């Protein structure tokens, strides 16, 4: 009984494999004629302000007699 099940599974696998090859077709990849442009709109203002504020706070703490 197990032999029949193995053959049936093998037939199904072969059929699926042949079907996938038939549907694969031909795929071509070509380089674009124009350059690829990636626009990055990044806002770094907040990070810069935070670092300056932290640095200013450290400066005030280290030089309390000046302020």
What can you tell me about this protein's structure?
The chain is an all-alpha fold and 67 residues long. It has one domain. 61% of the residues lie in helices and 0% in strands.
Key words describing this protein structure:
61% helix, 0% strand
Q: What is the helical fraction, as a range of percent?
A: 55-70%
Q: How confident is the prediction overall: mean pLDDT?
A: 76
Tell me the domain tally. Answer: 1
* Main beta sheet strand tally, sense and closure: none
Order of helices and strands: HH
| Helical stretch tally | 2
Percent strand equals under 5%
Residue stretches low in confidence (pLDDT < 50, at least 5 long) are none
Instruction: Give the distance, in angstroms, between the N- and C-terminal Cα atoms.
Output: 93 Å
Structural shape: elongated
Coarse structural class: mainly alpha
The overall strand count is 0
Rg value: 33 Å
Give the topology.
Layout: H1 2-24, H2 45-62
Summarize the structure.
By secondary structure, the chain is mostly helical. It is built from two helices and no strands.
């Amino acid at each position: 009984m197990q032999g029949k099940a193995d053959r049936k599974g093998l037939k199904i696998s072969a059929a699926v494999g042949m079907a996938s090859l038939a549907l694969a077709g031909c795929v071509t990849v070509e380089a674009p004629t124009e350059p690829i442009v990636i626009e990055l709109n990044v806002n770094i203002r907040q990070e810069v302000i935070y670092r300056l504020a932290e640095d200013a706070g450290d400066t005030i703490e280290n030089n309390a007699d000046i302020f």
